[in-house]
Amino acid sequence: MPFELRIALRYLTARRKQAFISVISAISILGVSVGVMALMIALGLMTGLQGEIRSRILGTTAHLSIFPSQGGDFEDYRQVVASVRRMPRVLGTAPAFYSKGLLTSATGSAVATLKGIRPSEERTVTELGSQVEPEGGFEALEVPGEALPPILLGHDLAVTLGVAAGDVVTVTSPRGRLSPMGVLPRVAKLRVAGTARTGLYEFDSAWAYVPLETAQRLFGDGEQATLVEVRVDDIYAVRDLARDLLARLGEGYITTDWIQMNASLFSALWLEKTVIAITIGLIVMVAALNIVATLILMVMEKHKDIAILVSMGASRGAITRIFVLQGTVIGAVGTLAGGVLGWAVCRLFDHYRLIRVPVDVYQIAYVPFELVPLDAAVVVVGALLTCFLATIHPARGAARLDPAEALRYE
Description:
Layout: H1 3-12, H2 19-60, E1 64-68, H3 77-85, E2 90-104, E3 109-117, H4 119-122, E4 132-133, E5 150-154, H5 155-161, E6 168-179, E7 182-196, H6 201-204, E8 207-211, H7 212-219, E9 227-232, H8 238-249, E10 253-257, H9 258-261, H10 263-301, H11 303-311, H12 316-352, H13 359-362, H14 373-399, H15 403-407
Parallel strand pairs: 3-8, 5-7
Antiparallel strand pairs: 1-9, 1-10, 2-3, 2-6, 2-9, 4-7, 5-8, 6-7
Helix pairs in contact: 1-12, 2-10, 2-12, 2-14, 10-12, 10-14, 12-14
């Protein structure tokens, strides 16, 4: 072991005459530990929140959507679906018909977004089929076998209406029909086939799903679709794939993707993560100031030892390294302890789902913790670098100490 490291470790060992300095060193270690732990927990919280919201959104909506550039509904959606399905890197395509409607039951009413789908094709672009309760409710939309067409309601929407599987709801379409008495709204009765629990409050409280043909009959003017949804193999390459799709389809089409549709949400989450990281990172800065104070007190306490070492032939660089190593050891121990505790707390909070959030704001009921190795590495390296930089000024001050002046009155 180099003698500089041996002396640095010895100075950190508690003795009766050094008890105060040892307490300050312990406080410095504690400060670094708390700062690193808090920063890791905060990053794990925000990363987990972003990842959970992203996965649930992508499980409920398509990665990419294709619209007619002139507005209105698709007339040739079948040809578009067939053409896009043959493209490489496309995992699935499905037509969809969107509209707003008023849902009423014997105990309540609500305005909802109705999505007309074909279950066999919808399975290739979203995970809706695995989110439906009871089992078999999703397949009921494929081949309606009853007099009344089936409908799937979001779980919270069903609670609002006070209905369950087998009950009847009335759907009123905003698109009217001509009659001898003028334009009248289209009204249809549908039987609830089940409920869908996506985990996103926005969808569970205001979305319903009906067969594509039912949506066309209620809200359209023929066999049309609002858009064609596409699922791809790389969610971060949707921009490039969109250009390829448009080049294949030719003019008359536009696209939008999940990044564009949720840009404001993820920008807000990213800003929250950045602000929280900077704010909590200041704790590590405060701990680094404690290291500065510890080393300054140590230099004042050990001025005689420093003078003796210099008189015995120790170089100024060796004196500098002694105090740099002392501060670095404090920082390393604190960073290691904080890193371990931060990782353990993230695992504990994620396993027991201890952090609850309002679902109407964050779309999910609890916050999952996901500590990315890159974030953890940045925190550890940043904390070690900050602690190292904090040692430079006191260590250089110790190296400049004049041994003759220090020993004059000893």
